[in-house]
Amino acid sequence: MSDENNVGEDNETVTGIEAPIYLKYNFTAGAAASRFLTRIKEGVLTGQRCPRCSQVYIPPRGSCAACGVPTEEEVELADKATVESFTIVSIPIPGNPIEPPFVVANLVPDGANISVIHLLSECDNAEVHIGQRVQAVWKPQEEWGYALDNIRYFKPLDEPDVPVERIGKLPVTGLEG
Amino acid sequence: MSTLAAVVGIGQTKYTTKREDVSIAGLVREAAARALQDADLGWDDIDAVIVGKAPDMFEGVVMPEIYLTDALGCNGKPMLRVHTAGSVGGSTALVAASHVQSGAFKRVLTVAFEKQSESNAMWALSNPQPFSTHLNAGAGGYFAPIIREYIRRSGAPYDTGIKVAVKDRLHGARNPLAHLQLPNINMQEVEESFMLWDPIRYLESCPSSDGACAMVIASEELADKAARPPAWIRGVAMRSEPTMYAGREEVNPQAGRDCAADVYKQAGITDPRKDLDVAEVYVPFSWYEPMWLENLGFAPEGEGWKLTMEGATSLIDGGDIPWNPSGGVLSSNPIGASGMIRFAEAARQVRGECGEHQVEGAKLALGHAYGGGAQFFAMWVVGAEKG
Ligand SMILES: [Zn+2]
């Protein structure tokens, strides 16, 4: 039986209870990503070349999504790269202590034909531009793990800009190669 | 063999930041009940139910469709959930349509929803990936560099995005269901709003909304006897492509162009700007209007911004091809439902029931949705006539 005096309280709408979810999972990298992660632990960026279209993928996924064929040939890449595009982020990333504003760039390492995202630093944010040349700044070797985070960030290089039509097409030897 | 089908009932909730008065089940039920009421039908008249929503982490409820079966009257009926990221509201409607067009069912209820207030989509889209850096800054962080590349290529004036942001909010102010009601918004206010992901400003981004949208789709025979004017489904198309491959065209994705060509062909459209009366297109960040104007063939490549700047897409300026008269995703964004709202608003236009945001005499309309890394596309063309 309900107490008449408490009807109001009993009928209060519960508009939310906090119910956090935690998730840890094991990532089985597979053959291609295993190679990539093993080599990046040694401080080397690698990709895989498609046997059909010759495009080089980083990180390699073991296949070319454009051609639908397996990729096996491993290719060593430079730690120099070109800015394909970028954004200046002015809000924090949940779970990442990085302080805004920061520049997240789509970078194509020399020798690769697809971009990866990474941080640009040691730069004037207002000066960052498409075609800009940059180079990796690595963490101290003792901190290297199986992660692209072994590279702390990229910083601008004193090299001429890459013309737009050549972005994503540079050989591993860079602009002059 | 495919037969004719039509939308005979539409129901939407009022889009808002937080619907604290209802659970997810209550929210979807509200939209579904309104769609049934609009169709002058009851729960027993429905043969199957097709549900869609965006990734489960957006609300923290895993496989919500399972617990929604009772709220949606699925007991004893086929029920199916569709998932194609942000385009899901559109592809859900298309799966529902195909269930009728195939002749498998006579009347299908389709519902899409998101209750963004229950979790945090920005967080859900910012999780670290094992082989990448932890720099995924939500959907805006992903699309901002693509927008920057569009601006570089097209040479569009810097205020094109600002103009879209104002235009869609002025449209939204004419739609009582729209989440944002900003009848006095102006270019200066948008320009001075906080730069979140350069070049995307706060007011050039969609809001986070709670809401659901539902439709009843019926066979030709039943639609002919419908309580209100049916919106005849004249073309349906979906396309997808991988998120990443070398040389991928991210500004003007091939899957979007192919999807548009397919749906236009079915509907007999050769010049979309001329042949269509109105379009409801998924524009979550303002710059996607000029980009999709090109991707969908309303303008030649590199010239979409000209239509925007001329006012061609503005209902209020009397443009020849209004885009998003409902206010679009920039005015309401319950993510999983956003695509279905585009499809439903296209249907409402050709039914002539949009009131203040009606495009006068609209006979043929496009509904569009995209999702993932601009890799899933869903479109339909609906008409006042069978064709
Ligand atoms: Zn290939």
Uncertain segments of chain B are none
Strand order of the largest sheet of chain B: 3-2-4-7-1-8-11-10-9
Radius of gyration of chain B: 19 Å
Percent strand of chain A = 25-35%
**Tally of strands of chain B:** 11
Offer a quick outline of the entry.
The complex is a heterodimer of chains A (177) and B (387). By secondary structure, chain A is mainly beta.
Structure commentary:
The complex is a heterodimer of chains A (177) and B (387). With 177 residues, chain A is mainly beta. Chain A has one domain (31-166). Chain A contains two helices and ten strands, in the order ααββββββββββ. A five-stranded antiparallel sheet of chain A has the order 8-7-6-9-10, with no helix packed on it. A three-stranded antiparallel sheet of chain A has the order 2-1-5, covered by helices on one side. Chain B has 387 residues and is α/β, with parallel strands linked by helices. Chain B is 34% helix and 19% strand. Chain B contains 14 helices and eleven strands. In chain B, the strands form two sheets. Chain B has a nine-stranded mixed sheet. A two-stranded antiparallel sheet of chain B has the order 5-6. The two termini of chain B are 18 Å apart. The model of chain B has no long low-confidence stretch (mean pLDDT 96). β6 of chain A pairs antiparallel with β5 (195-198) of chain B. The structure holds zinc ion.
Task: Please outline the helices and strands.
The complex is a heterodimer of chains A (177) and B (387).
Chain A: H1 7-10, H2 30-40, E1 45-49, E2 56-57, E3 63-64, E4 69-70, E5 73-77, E6 80-89, E7 102-109, E8 116-120, E9 133-138, E10 151-156
Antiparallel strand pairs in A: 1-2, 1-5, 3-4, 6-7, 6-9, 7-8, 9-10
Chain B: E1 5-12, H1 24-39, E2 48-53, H2 64-67, E3 79-82, H3 88-101, E4 107-115, H4 121-124, H5 138-154, H6 160-172, H7 187-191, E5 195-198, E6 200-201, E7 210-219, H8 220-223, E8 231-240, H9 254-267, H10 272-275, E9 278-280, H11 288-295, H12 304-310, H13 328-331, H14 335-351, E10 364-371, E11 376-383
Parallel strand pairs in B: 2-3, 2-4, 9-10
Antiparallel strand pairs in B: 1-7, 1-8, 4-7, 5-6, 8-11, 10-11
Helix pairs in contact in B: 3-14, 11-12
